[in-house]
Amino acid sequence: MRRRLLAAAAAASVVVPVLAGALPAMADRALPAVVSTDPVDWTPHVLDGTVWALALVGDTVVVGGAFTKVADARRQTTLNRKNVFAFGLHDGQIRTFAPQVDGAVYSLAAGGDHTVYLGGAFKSVNGTSQRGVARVSVNTGERLGSFSTRLNWGDVRALATRGDRLYMGGTFSAVNGVGRVGLARLNANTGAVDQGFDARLTGPGLKRTRVEHFDVSPDGRKLIAVGAFLKAAGADRTQIALFDVGGPGAVLSGWYTDAYKPPCMKGFDTYLRQVKFAPDGSYAVVAATGRASSAQKLCDSAARFETGSAGRHNPTWVQRTGGDSLYAVAVTGPAVYLGGHQRWFDNPYGTDGNGPGPGAVSRPGIGAVSPNTGKALPWNPTRSRGVGVRAFLVTEQGLLVGSDTDQLGREYHGRVGLFPS
């Protein structure tokens, strides 16, 4: 069924200014039910490259990635938008927002006063030197000079705001001249480094210690990080660590798992790609790549871990694809959505190149599993697989998807789509 709820609005001017005075908003990640398999028809299209990140600022969706051109929903107007653009959540109209960013945008986070934080591999914003992280106005695209943060090198792969704090993860090893390996907390207004917050991540023997992704619990008291590290605060923490961050520092939790100690395919210094808390913060789900070599390892899988108590934890469940990577996860309550370039779910006995194993179900590129059992749900919209889904964003309108292909739910959707609630 084709959705025409806002066709008239979408047919109007495709470039509109952002309304002044809109309030910042964090996406409510709890949804009452599994979303539709039929994407709405009014989202715009990214015509090349990859969408890496999505954020919601008021009623505006900000899209980050590595791309150069976008088009309106009807593909009648094409606009130059390099690495970042924005559109209306309710009507899909492309905003005038167009900051000049000279490198890929890998992460986004909503800020106060209708601003958004950009994280990525860029070195300048609007012609001014600003490496890896910047704050810009969603109304005007102007870079805010009052936010002054300097990385020594590397990039920013994950961002999150909680109150007046901005969390940042990536490949850097110093921020504003202060040693911070892979993870830092900043003053969200000034960009100053929080001197009391240091996760002390190390990776003895690894080429480069980095945080691939992290999430902060809804109450702001926990942070779970994944990436290329082997220790945190001097304790063994292979690829995943949980911190208590409600106070002035980064206190390593007594929670840990050895589930990611076994190596996957040679060359993966980390095979974990994304981690998300449940809406109530009681558990987290990890999405992984790594080229599966056995059903006993967590390569090419999603896994749920309870986070409410200290001590060693095994996964509550594991969803295995049988050799295809998972890159993105969203947890909404009724479902856990997974995206990558997988062909199957429920496939622990299948292997890459040899077809599905017993019990496997087809879930090309995107799918959903039960939060209780990890088994595949009937939800199966399909997408052209490409490299994979890189970003989910859950809003009250439904599930936004960002990827590198243009077929979603058996329809044309250029790298961005919305499955409605």
UniProtKB/TrEMBL annotation:
Residues 350-377 are annotated as: Disordered. The keyword NAD does not apply. Keywords: Signal. It holds the Pfam family DUF5122. Residues 1-27 form the signal peptide. Gene3D superfamilies: 2.80.10.50. This is PKD domain containing protein. It comes from Actinoplanes missouriensis (strain ATCC 14538 / DSM 43046 / CBS 188.64 / JCM 3121 / NBRC 102363 / NCIMB 12654 / NRRL B-3342 / UNCC 431). The lineage of its organism: Bacteria, Bacillati, Actinomycetota, Actinomycetes, Micromonosporales.
